[in-house]
Task: structure prediction
Amino acid sequence: MSDDDQHDGSVEKQPEPKSFPKKVLDAVLWFVKDQWFLIGMVIVVIISSQVQVPESQQATKQVVVAYLAISLIFFISGCTLDTRILLENYAKWKHHLFIQAQCFIMVSALAFGIVSLAATNTKFMDPWLLVGLIFNGCQPTAMASNVLFTRQSHGNVPLTVVEVTIGNLIGPFISPLLIKMYLAAGAWYTEAIPLQSGGYGALYQRVFMQFGLSIYLPMFVGQCVRRLFPKVVNKVFVEWKIGKFASMAMLSLLWQTFDHAFGTEAFSSVKPSNMIFIVFITIVNYALWLVISVALSVLWLDRKDTISVAMCAPAKTLALGVPLSFLLFTDISGLEEAKIQIPMLMFQVLQMGLASLSTIAFRRWVDAGEKKLQSDDEEAEAQSQEVTEKT
Result:
């Protein structure tokens, strides 16, 4: 063999293996890039625990941030979702029954079972925290975070949007009834609730006004913009990736919630043992139903639809839970209202953290399924072509 053959330029040079520190650095950089939202959540919680908006401006801040953040998220969804696909997903009534039954009936029953077990020791848990756990279990699915994490998991985003709108439309009717039903069991912790009177008119008016202005109207406007200016929408949301602002809006929503909780000193009113229990049971509750929802879904749904179920079924919203905490009961103190909200608040942040982490596995699972389908299609096409050539 000549020297020219030995030094032929066609021989590729093998890349040098990465050192261990370089591998660790690459892994850290990948995690930061992939889970920047989770890191942002931690930063938001730290900031809100140290500096809060003055009490006199809390109500204004809460309304402004909630409306603007949720409106932006659903406006972006309206601009980026195909109308035909959205309507097709509204027609999937079996999916709606499957997801909403899990979210309202099964998850609330699990929450009531957990509360019943925790209440066996009357000296362990604060009664208002137990009521708060029931409140949380009876809420409809989360709104903006579901859409965000479904998109990150490469799931069926239109189906998630549909389930969010349906769940939060029927929630104001179903959630109060479920809460009343579970609290009617006569357990010792319900004795702290004063005798109640009155209806749900104020609750319905407030909740439907918020959902109409922050979900349905922005979605409709986004769909109109998409139909009227398709090239502009494609350039802004696909090429410029302005859709990332939805994640920033979600972080601002989380900030205003924790800012309110720290501002009212709700956390300092709870015993450490009770807080540890709430955190533990929240993680177990969410993780358990996440697994159950996936196990039930893969039996009859494809992977993209399964992701939508996994994001919607175990998740809960604060948008209805917080108004319910001070509209469902009258003649209770601000501290008692705050204690009802604590389990819902902790569930909100922990579910978002766990959902954000789950997107890593879900995304790989969905992508692997699509590659397999593509490979099967190519193989079937090759076999068909081979049969055609033989004939």
The chain is about 75% helix and 0% strand. The chain has a mean pLDDT of 85. Residues 172 and 205 are 10 Å apart (CA to CA). The domain at 37-48+58-358 is CATH 1.20.1530.20 (Na+/H+ antiporter like fold).
